[in-house]
Amino acid sequence: MHARALALLVVPRTAGHDAPWNASTRNAAALPRIERHRKMSAVRTIVRMIERQWQDEVNPGADRKRTTMSRGTRSEGREGGSGAGMPPLVSGEEGRREPDFVEALARGLNVLASFSPEHGGPRRGRMILSEVAARTGLSRGTARRLLLTLRSLNYIDTDGRFFWLTPKVLQFSNAYLNPLGLGDAAKAIIRDVTNALNESSSVGVLDGPDVVYVARFEVRRLYSSGIDVGTRLPAHCSSLGRILLASLPHEQLQHWLSQHELKKMTPKTIAEVSRFHEELARVRSQKYAIIDEELEIGIRSVAVPIVGQSGRTIASLNASASTARISVDTLADVFVPRLHVAAGNLSAIMDW
């Protein structure tokens, strides 16, 4: 279609265009006007093509609206489902983004993020095209182009039907964890805490509304907690997150509270802003945070800050236990001193 329209722009002039004016060439006088009309018509065709392509990039749902119901049903049937009901990862707030924001890059990263285990799905780590489109809020055509681009870069692989991440994506986690200082020396310190307390211990950092586990050693027991490196938990009701929130400057904390909800996870969760401020003040004064069944009934945990040489809190260290095994007093009297020693050793290794 593009080639046909472009061909109209290069229609050769006829010999009659340069001939002297006479009665025999009167009809040829209309040829330049016809040629200009054909060229303008071709230009309008090309402009409409470009506009439609641009609209597809800006409004990714537009091409879905143009697709007939019967065609959509047939295509979804071949892929095994539309992924309906799965919330998109993006909310379409392009209007509030900065001028330097690159939409194409953001969409590619959202496609990669859509494979995260926390988003669930019928098949672990494997999705069909329509599921990726539904999770990212992109059109099927845009999602397909991004998936194939990521495949050419070896971040995604496919068998022609399903798509999945490749080991190459691990370079991003290593690029973050290695500069953080979580090498063998740091891991040995965390392992010693676990062995000394006979309870699982972890290191976490704040990321938006969540605390992200960046290191963990779990004590061997019959039932596992399911927490591993990369696990995200609500910051406001986890000991790792609460100690990090308590370390934020007042302006940053106020901004965080304005952006994120204090969701009530259990009947014991502190969800009132005034009470939360009071709890953070207590955490700052005592330099540790205890969570008593605020995140999950039957689980207690305690965390201390890992403070760098500049005085900035760079991460937090915690230990968690069952309420049936460990009391709140034991957390404060036994766990906290051991965690403070380990945090002091980690601060020299992790300072950055």
Automatic annotation (TrEMBL):
Start and end residues of each HTH iclR-type domain: 102-167
UniProt keyword terms in alphabetical order: DNA-binding, Transcription, Transcription regulation
UniProt-listed SUPFAM superfamilies: GAF domain-like (SSF55781), Winged helix' DNA-binding domain (SSF46785)
InterPro entries for the chain: GAF-like_dom_sf (IPR029016), HTH_MetabolicPath_Reg (IPR050707), PcaR_PcaU (IPR012794), Tscrpt_reg_IclR_C (IPR014757), Tscrpt_reg_IclR_N (IPR005471), WH-like_DNA-bd_sf (IPR036388), WH_DNA-bd_sf (IPR036390)
Keyword Transcription regulation: yes
Single GO MF annotation: DNA-binding transcription factor activity
All copies of domain IclR-ED, residue ranges: 168-352
Region of interest called Disordered, as start-end residue ranges on this chain: 58-97
Regions crossing the membrane: none
Top-level taxon of the source organism: Bacteria
Keyword NAD applies: no
GO BP term, pick one: positive regulation of DNA-templated transcription
Pfam family, one: HTH_IclR
NCBIfam families, alphabetized: pcaR_pcaU
Protein name: IclR family transcriptional regulator
Organism for this UniProt entry: Methylobacterium terricola
